[in-house]
Design brief:
With about 130 residues, the protein is mainly α. It has five helices and no strands. It is globular. Mean pLDDT is about 90; it is low at about 125-130.
């Protein structure tokens, strides 16, 4: 069965939640909050972009995004960045982290193949070989 559309929707939702969590990271205003918020927004925008277009630089410099386990660990990392007060960031971080754990688990279920946009790393390290 082809789960490509489901994975696309999940990745789009996670990208959107990353951007919202990054915006929430700005408050209360502080130097560290602004820097971390900018990074989380950038990660969310990159996640959204990967669902529509794969820039060649991404497959070269971030090949881990083209496997379930790599993307799952990336989502767990971003989710853990957002896990602190107020509640909106805890919710956003938890959603992202739970999806990340789900992706790590999917790496070990051979019946579920990654969608095409997660296999496009050009056969470099971290790419799924199917």
């Amino acid at each position: 069965m082809d789960y490509s559309n489901i994975f696309r929707l999940v990745n789009l939702a996670v990208g959107g939640v990353m951007i919202l969590g990054g915006i929430g990271q700005f408050f209360p205003i502080g130097f560290q909050s602004v820097i971390v918020g900018c990074y989380v927004i950038l990660f969310g925008a990159a996640t959204l972009l990967l669902e529509f277009q794969i820039p060649p630089a991404v497959s070269r410099w971030a090949p881990f995004l083209f496997s379930f386990i790599g993307r799952g660990i990336f989502y767990i990392f971003v989710g853990s960045i957002l896990l602190h007060q107020p509640a909106i960031r805890i919710i956003a971080g938890s959603i992202i982290g739970i999806v990340g754990v789900g992706y790590v688990v999917l790496e070990y279920i051979p019946q579920i193949e990654p969608p095409q946009n997660m296999r496009d790393a050009g056969g470099e390290w971290g790419a799924e070989q199917i």
